[in-house]
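User: Here's a chain of 196 residues. Predict its fold as tokens.
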Amino acid sequence: MCTGKCSKCIGITLFPLAVCAIVSNILLYFPNGQVLQLSEITDLVWFFHGILGAGILVILPAFMMLGAGGAGCCANRCGMLLSVILSVLGFAGGAYCVVISSLGLIGGPLCDTGDGEYLYPFRNDTLEDNYLFNQTTWSICKQPENIILWNIVLFSILLVIGVIEAILCFIQVINGLTGFICGTCMRRRKTNISGM
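Assistant: Prediction complete.
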């Protein structure tokens, strides 16, 4: 059986995704490359959905997945069981990132509408009137420059990363349970039986 190899492939894939999520979340703190005061940054950025959710909570199971195919049946089964537990944590982190990113996309950014006061001009929009589908409303945000595009791109990246991570962690839960229940020593057992 190849549950150990599958774990390693998933673990290797999760690392760059987690790093991209962390970088994307950090970039949300600097709209259009500007350093703003804390009160001028969109509130959903402070939920650390990319740093904690799709980042740290996914890196932990990724490390375990790389080591899940350890030597010996018992070591491998224990590694697989631990990878299942941590993959559930990774799935929760990816799902958390998806939820916060979705809210960030729907609610829109915090911006200055021209009178020097920062507010959320799109928060009460219905889905039909949402700013995402009507670019002409984007001109309402004067500062920071290009804040709407900045938020849409980064929250969209985080949304996609969160979905992919959640799917991969879910696959690893199934893979890890299979490896724990069935073991990954099938080839060795067949070799021992044929050698008799």
